[in-house]
Backbone:
């Protein structure tokens, strides 16, 4: 049986970089490097990061420059809805472009994609790499029409063989469905395909990748208290768009300015405890 290559893919720097490479992003890559024993780490970017942490991690990366925006991603559509205008005003457009780039990279190369606001905890077991495509379940989402909760898949971790049928169908649907709203083309499209073609994707339970959720309680468990992880958790998604800016406080008062080396070294929190081993370079 063919295996997914232990090649990790990250997408970053779709916008001009005006601040040094952040510690959270460094710890994402360093925790990947030291827990996953990757054969290669592909770093897909348009604008190169800079700063001391970037200089430390860059030699371990296979840097692939991103060119023109991917097919299906049309920024003009943000003006067609209030949600789209909010996304554009908040500067989240890069996240949607990354949705398309990750699918292109995995279809071409195969491997494991993860968002840059990931912290790796344990090695992804080999059994996960024997499937054509693996996605993790996230908390159920309300149907946009009825409000009824429906199962949902998250695209922050994707494990797939090159040209996996699920990814090819997802890419085609994403190009068709993208309308400038948050997840119609991404998580909603993946969930729709899962419901109609369950045999094309292996679904990992929520606690594998998303054990601490995108809620006020979930962010508190990550950054304010030291909470136990669900047994079998392999990595944590940090939901950075909900707290990165100090101006956004609807989910948490925590923000990127507080996530520094002092916090990681001394913080009595889940994230600080799990990230601490990766602060110092290995020998």
Residues:
């Amino acid at each position: 049986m063919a295996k997914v290559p232990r090649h990790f893919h990250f997408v970053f720097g779709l916008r001009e970089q005006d601040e040094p490479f952040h510690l959270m992003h460094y710890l994402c890559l360093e925790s990947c490097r030291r827990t996953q024993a990757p054969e290669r780490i592909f770093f897909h970017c348009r604008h190169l990061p800079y700063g001391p942490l970037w200089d430390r991690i860059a030699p371990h990366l296979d840097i692939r420059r991103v060119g023109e925006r991917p097919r299906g991603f049309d920024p003009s559509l943000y003006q067609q809805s209030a949600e789209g205008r909010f996304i554009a005003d908040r500067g989240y457009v890069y996240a949607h472009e990354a949705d398309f780039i990750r699918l292109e990279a995995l279809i071409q190369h195969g491997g494991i994609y993860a968002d840059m606001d990931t912290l790796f905890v344990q090695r992804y077991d080999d059994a996960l790499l024997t499937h054509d495509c693996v996605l993790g379940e996230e908390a159920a989402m309300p149907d946009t029409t009825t409000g009824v909760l429906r199962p949902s898949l998250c695209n922050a971790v994707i494990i797939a063989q090159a040209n996996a049928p699920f990814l090819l169908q997802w890419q085609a649907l994403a190009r068709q469905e993208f309308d400038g709203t948050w997840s119609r083309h991404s998580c909603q499209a993946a969930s729709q395909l899962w419901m109609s073609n369950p045999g094309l994707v292996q679904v990992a339970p929520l606690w594998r990748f998303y054990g601490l959720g995108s809620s006020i309680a979930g962010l508190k468990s990550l950054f304010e208290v030291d909470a136990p992880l669900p047994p079998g958790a392999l990595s944590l998604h940090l939901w950075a768009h909900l707290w990165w800016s100090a101006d956004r406080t609807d989910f948490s008062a925590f923000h990127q300015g507080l996530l520094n080396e002092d916090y990681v070294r001394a913080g009595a929190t889940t994230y600080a405890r799990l990230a601490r081993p990766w602060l110092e370079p290995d020998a």
Q: What stands out?
A: The first helix runs from residue 23 to 36. Residues 7-207 form a domain with the Spore Coat Polysaccharide Biosynthesis Protein SpsA; Chain A fold (CATH 3.90.550). The longest strand covers residues 149-160. The radius of gyration is 18 Å.
